[in-house]
Amino acid sequence: MTNIDHSDSGPPIAAISGPLQQALRSWDGFFEWLPVGLYVCDVDGNIVLHNRRMADLLDRAPLPGESETAFWLSLRSSALKSSFASNALALTEGPLGQVLLSGRPSRDRELTIERVNGTRATLLANLEPLLDGGGRVIGGVCVLQDITRRKRLETIRRERERQFRDLLEALPVALYTTDADGNLTFYNQAAADLWGHEPAIDGARWCGAWKLYHADGRDMRHEESPMAVAIREQCEIRDAEAQLERPDGTHVPFIAYPTLLRDKSGSMIGAVNMMVDISERKRAELEQKTLMDELNHRVKNTLATVQSVAAQTLRKAQVPHEIRDLFEKRIFALSKAHNQLSSSRWTSADLSALAGEILEAYHDEEEGAAERIVVAGPSIHLAPHAALTIAMALNELATNAAKYGALSVPGGQVALRWSVEGQASAQTLVLDWHENGGPKVTPPKKQGFGTRFVERGLAQQLKGKVELNFAAAGLHCRAVIPLQGSAA
Amino acid sequence: MNARRNTPFLSLEGLKLLIVEDEPAVAFLVEDMLQDLGCTAVWHASTVKEALDILREHKPDVAVLDVNLRDELAYPVAEKLDAMEIPFIFATGYGRKGIPADWLIKPVVQKPFDAETLRDALNIVLSRREQADGLERAKRDAKDRERM
Predict the structure, then answer these.
(1) What one-character-per-residue DSSP string does A98-110 give?
(2) Residue A158 contacts residue A146 (beta carbons within 8 Å)
């Protein structure tokens, strides 16, 4: 508060002299030079002093002794607004009125005025009571600054921010922003819907979800969330899969895309995270898997039924056990090819895994299996029909080897090797089945199912060339199969 | 496969067996295989209810359980068998992938299977029971010794 001592001739001015001293010693001159509008009222609210800038700001000079209220109301009173924060009130008296009554200052009051000439301005008013030595109110001073430009820029900035928020709000994806420490600064309705609640902006950190889990179901602390990792490691994260639990207990799998926000100088000022609900996709995947499992189960049951029907029939007909066994092995070869295909959801079967499963049945447990049957070749994914045909063919070759060939005597060996030859669309799979160490080979007099299947079935089904060579030292089978159509 | 050699072979001779299987053809096959392996009496159930009814009257030595029985799952039978301490195995088209983790302690044979696979799986559960019985016997003996 300001106490005015009229006995003094002016402010203390020690280190200045000359014309400046002269100018400052003149109270009126000092007043006029101030870069703010200013007026003084007496205790009754009459304007006793004003500077030129005050008259400029309001486009009207008060009449000598004019009351402050009359002066302000002579401006376009209907448009005269005083705003405190967001509450805009019409002014019913001069701004100093309350100050003169209460004896308390009023700071940074914003006044929106419309001048007589119709122009508008926003003024910042600072109001101070003037007290005598006994603390009694003897008047008041009002300082006015034109903040129209600043207000307009602020309004534009606010409007832009609002539009931006409206845009984020309207986006059909869940997103939220945080400051550089991970504290939530904004989230849209889609995020609240995804989280299943509306977390308080104060206090929520890293993610607004109630509870988080890793994709595999393990608990995830909020500071382990994709957003927290992105901010801590200063990197963007893509395709981070996690699950959240809503307060109502429902679980939602989602993918997070946290991205850092940087200012012009490149330093991180926060982050924005987009969360995509993938429950639909998960559900569809599960449905497809269930369907696939069901199909595989039915195929297996059907093969078991065929096995049983054949076993009953052959038993009744007193067919030798050996023949029944041969039949069973063929069914199993089909079943094993199905196993390989079902584990890849019927897209392909890996030749190594397939050959391994088929030939496993022929491993002699008493001797080292590794030495007796060698399987070697590059990784190659066979299309389903190729996998089934090759599985059947390998089973026939192995059956023959076990009965007449290298696997029928101790020390005999089988090597299955393959390679991919040629370029691009002309690539071929070259499969080599080589037996040695078995009894002397004599070509069969009659062509059975096995040789027929290997020689003709394989060639026809896979449009390849098959050579079956009953060399005395050991059977050699070479199949050249075009990969186009047979590889997956 | 080497596991086969390490499993002590126990005779199935004279064992009484329960088959729970809804496909008659598959049930016959299992029955034949088990008869070839020396099992004597066989009960056959194709629903959970039938199986539970049999178990109320009889106590098989071992059981083979299909998981999917038309529109129902065979786990209530599995629980009953466990409660009665009857060893059993699962036989299913789904293989191990189709069995809940809680039950994976039991051997699972995937259809179609041969007699050897069936025998090996039964051997595993029977030898486990032998071991458990052996442990029980050892505990009893230890207690008896304490009393003396």
Answers:
(1) HHHHH---EEEEE
(2) no
Last residue of a domain, one of A152, A185, A219: A152
Distances (CA, A) of A467 to A112, A388, A450, A464: 99, 20, 14, 10
Q: Domain holding A376: CATH number?
A: 3.30.565.10
Instruction: Say if residue B148's pLDDT is above 80.
Output: no
Nearest to B93 among A296, A315, A328 (CB): A296
Asked if the Cβ–Cβ distance from A300 to B32 is below 8 Å, we say: no
What is the share, in percent, of chain A residues with pLDDT greater than 90? 49
Quick: pLDDT tens for A255-279. 999 999 999 998 999 999 999 999 9
| Residue that has been written with the tokens 């039949």 in this structure | A327
| Average pLDDT taken over every residue of chain A | 86
Task: Kindly state the tokens that stand for B114.
Answer: 């041969």
In our burial notation (b when 16+ CB lie closer than 10 A, e otherwise), range A325-336 reads ebbbbbbbbbbb
Closest-CA residue to A209 (of A189, A225, A229, A186)? A225
User: Within a domain: residue A393?
Assistant: yes
Class of CATH domain B13-147 = alpha beta
Q: Assign A429 a pLDDT band (cuts: 50, 70, 90).
A: very high
Which of A301, A329, A360 has the most B C-beta neighbours within 10 Å, making it the best mutation to test the interface with B? A301
Which 52-81 residues of chain B touch chain A by CB within 8 A?
A: 68
Report the pLDDT value the prediction gives residue B4, as an integer from 0 to 100. Answer: 42
Which residues of chain B does A304 touch, with a Cβ-Cβ cutoff of 8 Å? Answer: 23, 25-26, 29, 93, 111-113
Quote the domain boundaries for residue A404.
321-482
pLDDT above 70 (res B5): no
Distance CA B115, CA B30 (A): 8
Q: How confident is the model at residue B6 (pLDDT cuts 50, 70, 90)?
A: very low
HSE-CB for A452 with a 13 A CA cutoff: 5
CB neighbours of A229 closer than 8 A, spacing ≥ 6? Answer: A237, A240, A258
Could you tell me if B7 lies within 8 Å of chain A, comparing CB atoms?
no
Nearest-by-Cβ selection for A304 from B4, B5, B26: B26
CA nearest neighbour of B96 among A69, A186, A78, A300: A300
Is B93 an interface residue toward A (CB < 8 Å)?
yes
Tokens of A233: 């490691």
Residue A76 confidence class, pLDDT cut points 50, 70, 90: low
Chain B contact probe: residue of A308, A315, A342, A343 with most B CBs at under 10 A = A308
Residues 6+ apart with CB under 8 A from A144: A36, A37, A38, A54, A57, A58, A111, A123, A124, A125
ipTM: 0.76
| Measured distance CA(A295)–CA(A318) in Å, rounded | 34
Q: What pLDDT, on the 0 to 100 scale, is given for residue A339? A: 86
Tell me, yes or no, whether A326 and A249 share the same domain. no
Q: Which of A289-311 are b and which e, b meaning 16 or more Cβ less than 10 Å from the residue's Cβ? A: eeeebeebbebbbebbbebbebb
Residue among A298, A312, A331 minimizing CB distance to B93:
A298
pLDDT > 60? residue B125: yes
From B23, B92, B94, residue closest to A305, measured CB to CB: B23
How near does any CA of chain A get to the CA of B135, in Å?
Answer: 31
How many domains is chain A built from?
A: 3
CB contact under 8 A, A303 and B111: yes
